[in-house]
Every structure is written in C-alpha cells, then in structure tokens.
Description:
This protein is α+β, with helices and mostly antiparallel strands and 242 residues long. 25% of the residues lie in helices and 21% in strands. 36% of the residues are buried. The site of zinc ion (ZN) has 6 residues, from loops.
Amino acid sequence: MPEGPSIVILREEIARFKRKKVIKAIGNSKIDLKRLENKTIRDIKSWGKHLLICFDGFFIRIHLLMFGTYRINERKTTSLRLGLIFKNDELNFYTCAVLLTEGQPDDTYDWSADVMNDAWDSKKAIKKLKKQPGELVCDALLDQDIFAGVGNIIKNEILFITHIHPESKLGNIPLAKLKELVDEAVSYSFQFLKWKKAFVLRKHWLAHTKKTCPRCNIPLHKAYPGTRKRRSFFCNNCQVKY
Ligand SMILES: [Zn+2]
C-alpha cells in the first residue's frame, strides 16, 4: 500500500495540473463526473494516504488502497477508475477509491495528524496515545487519526529503530520512549521520501521483509499481531516488549 511519502511524491508530480481546466472526466468511478467538467483545479493537497484535488466548492479524494496506480499522459489496459482530460494532458487513476466531498479539505481534515504536514503536532499524538493504554503499539501506529501517512513499512522500521516490540501495550511504554517513537515516525517518513525518490528505499530496510536481525544476527520473527493483523517483522531479543 502506498504510504504517506509516496502520496507526497504523487502530489508533487501532478502539481503542474494546478490551475488547469478539466475538459472531460472519464472512468468507472461512481462520482458525478460531469461535475468536474469545465472546472479548474484550484489546489492539490495530501493528507496522509489521501490525495486531494480541490475545485471551487468541492474536492476529490483519491485513496490508492493496496494496489492503486496512476499514469500521466499514458493509459493502462486495466479499467480506468478516474481520468481527467486537460487541453494537452491527461491524468489517470486505477484501482483506487474516489470520493467527491462538498466544501474544502480544511473543513474535514486535521492537518496536525499528518506526519508529513508542517502543522504536525507531536504533543497531540502523545495525548491520543495516552488515551488508549490497552492498545498495542503496532495497531496505534497504523491509526490514521493519530499517524496519518504511516503505513506498514514505516511501522515495522520505526519499531525496530526504537527497539520497541510491536506487541507492547501503549500504557506500559515509558513516556520518553513514546516520544522517541513519535519523533521517529516523522523523521523516518521524510527519510523514506528521500530514499524513495532516489529509488533506494528497499535497500535501507532494516526489519521489513528481512530474515535476520542486523543488530543481533539471529532470525527475525514474522507475525500478524494486534487487531489489524498486518505483517510485522521484529526481533524478540533487542526489541523490548513493554
Ligand atoms: Zn535483534
């Protein structure tokens, strides 16, 4: 699943469509496509894993889900979910969820929960974590209301980097450690962005999809803990279960 940094790359890549007029909207999306025609894109934003294409009075939210893709001035053979045709260009989205919302993103989105937004607020994140002491840290990191943009790769890597076992209960993790984790969620996301842009993301993974702990040189464990049951890679020796 594309994580926050990948959506930032997408947002930057299509920034050139700002102020461009949509001549035709096509695809099998259930939204009212006619509504987009002859409308000018006012802004392109992102919140976590959501791409937001803003028009006067409404915006389109695109979520790439697990296998979503996009093409600029190119088409795939798979069925098109949403295609925006401009005078000289086209922008096409596949296998994604598309939603049309009235108003502007500022009305609905809490920018302070997006780890890659300038408005990100670590203190608020800590407050939210303290409110659910019984929750496992591996579930909390994927909670988009707390860490919008964090996905499974970032989760696995930052738990490894901070020596925290994915099955730790939030209430048992010392505050200083929790702060370290929250800060790492932000700094790792920006690091992820740099590596992804340079096509070297995978080679920097320490735990995600790995078989051996690079610190202990013993086998890593692979499991599906928590209520979200997402693939976790961790070391029982150097990651502390609080
Ligand atoms: Zn280890």
